[in-house]
């Protein structure tokens, strides 16, 4: 029966369909009598809606027109709270806020009609920056413009300063970042009160959309159906926003009595949807003369945009990761996410951690310099060890070996040799070379009690002809869910992956496995799949129809016999929270995550001091991830994350003008192309995690955390520039270099 599937680079389950063009994305689907929908949006950042005018020359009687008054249920996009309307009614709070929906069979006439709708708005004073929001000169949300705040305390920071030999302070900023998935947002809806609402679309979290539509239409849960179509990337950008576009398509479908398709073009997608939260982090760090951390005081602020959406979750992760993989006896982290009049910011791969880890790893290079130690030696003296506690008080039970990861990354990158060589060659050269690194960790799964609250489920069934079906709400969006689930189930059952079929996420068929986010799909839901598959095997053995050792043909025969005797063969497994993991939500204390992935990344750069252009020449990524399920796909996850982190670090600059993104097209929102991405050399260490399937942890978000600080530290090493802000565009770097020269 020995038939190992885990650890092999099995071809993607959906690979053939994608490369042959057979895969069906939402815009490939059509329905009889289907019409098209568009959104008319606010031009103002904040204001009172005085009226809506429909221009001349358009046959308005042919159009379906929807406003807030047409909503049958509650006018909200239900998520954590219900502050964001589906359609603005009396007030608008950000540019591009949806106010009117139009539908018509002719998509070209529809565009003309969209331009002929005039929303009359009386402007109100708006807030566009973290500083202005915190100043509270204008209150735009609640009593204080703060969506959520956290406080993490360990030891006594106030008393520690007096014993510190060095105190180093610094302020760091990160910009917004667009997810830039290949396939824009899109949705098709059918709706009537008799049958309910069905939507098909490009999305990450079917049950998020389901929850939102239940509230929006005031219908019972069984009257709402959400089907994920093939999804061309998400990265967090299709976590909550699909609830909005699904609501819009379904409202038009309900009023018109016809199926309605809404597909955003790239410009609308970039202007109207969520992005990575901009951030500001202030560090104050106390160290001893021999380079041991004594105190870390961290003030972390995110710009949430106009509505809360997922900001508390993003803030929580950024807060917990802000002190990194280091042992420090005294830590105080104070964090908050504030309201501004920009479109709401949302989830993006790493959500919160890339912002706070950039600040920490850049700051620690400066601390090392102040103490007179190399960045390597300073980190080595402060790495967390097994048995010590993180900032949130979580005791590390894993055999974590950050020093071993560091040694391997430095050796593979030739760090010490290159650093010495560059120091010798750089003076007087127009092209300066540098090398830098970042050490970090990333928690897998939802924070604290999150997984317990979600209570995720997965179902595995076996048909009489021996086919195994996996039913879960987790979605495939290019990251490999279907293939990994097939490998996990096949390994548990001793079968080939070809015998495993992953059913399309459809809320009328699959159980709620929680959202496809937070590096949780493989570790949390994959474990449910493994447990359910093992239960199938046990049922067959307990029934006496399957021996300990068996062939695939014998497994098929056992399924046939079992089904004939007992009926359907299936196993539904629900998440059971480990009893020894405890988290206090109020105090932000305890076991934040069941497991962490640990990593050290090294970047080598060249900087043309005449043009201030940066090129990343080499990149080494070493990480400990439990167990690698599929080596090719795991390496692909790291490579893709590093490429996005490269964009975050030096290219991707969202330009804002009064809350609106004004470079929302790919000609001047610069992302790294294949010519800009260096060789990315990926290496894994494996230390199996007992609660992960075959020992696996989550890795999807990990690479976003360490890439930008490694590059920033390399640029600082090359040029002497005091890098405090990303993206490090040539314009920004030129200013920094002028500071070095001065």
Name the assembly state.
single chain
Proportion of residues in helical segments: 25-40%
Count of DSSP-assigned helices: 19
Strand order of the largest sheet: 3-5-1-12-9-10-11
Range of strand content:
15-25%
Give the end-to-end Cα distance, rounded to a whole number of Å: 71 Å
Helices and strands: which structural class? alpha+beta
Number of strands: 28
Please state the average pLDDT score. 97
Biggest pleated-sheet summary: 7 strands, mixed
Shape: globular
Task: Indicate the topology.
Layout: H1 15-20, E1 35-41, E2 47-54, E3 64-66, E4 91-92, E5 98-104, H2 107-115, E6 117-123, H3 130-135, E7 146-154, H4 157-160, E8 166-174, E9 186-192, E10 196-201, H5 206-217, E11 224-228, H6 241-256, E12 260-263, H7 266-272, E13 279-287, E14 293-303, H8 311-321, E15 330-338, H9 353-371, H10 375-382, H11 402-413, H12 415-425, E16 431-444, H13 450-454, E17 457-462, E18 468-471, H14 481-493, E19 500-502, H15 521-542, H16 552-566, E20 569-574, E21 583-584, E22 589-590, E23 595-608, E24 613-624, H17 631-651, E25 656-657, E26 660-661, E27 680-685, H18 702-719, E28 725-726, H19 730-741
Parallel strand pairs: 1-12, 8-28, 10-11, 14-15, 18-19, 24-27
Antiparallel strand pairs: 1-5, 2-4, 2-6, 3-5, 7-15, 8-13, 9-10, 9-12, 13-14, 16-23, 17-18, 17-20, 21-22, 23-24, 25-26
Helix pairs in contact: 5-6, 8-9, 9-10, 9-18, 14-15, 17-18
Key features?
alpha+beta, 742 residues, 6-stranded mixed beta sheet, 7-stranded mixed beta sheet, 31% helix, 24% strand
Describe this structure in words.
This protein has 742 residues and is α+β, with helices and mostly antiparallel strands. Helices cover 31% and strands 24% of the residues. The chain has 19 helices and 28 strands. The strands form seven sheets. A seven-stranded mixed β-sheet has the order 3-5-1-12-9-10-11, with helices on both faces. Strands 7-15-14-13-8-28 form a six-stranded mixed β-sheet. α14 links the parallel β18 and β19 (500-502). The longest helix is centred in the last third of the chain and has 22 residues, at 521-542. The chain starts with 14 loop residues before the first helix and ends with a helix. The model has no long low-confidence stretch (mean pLDDT 97).
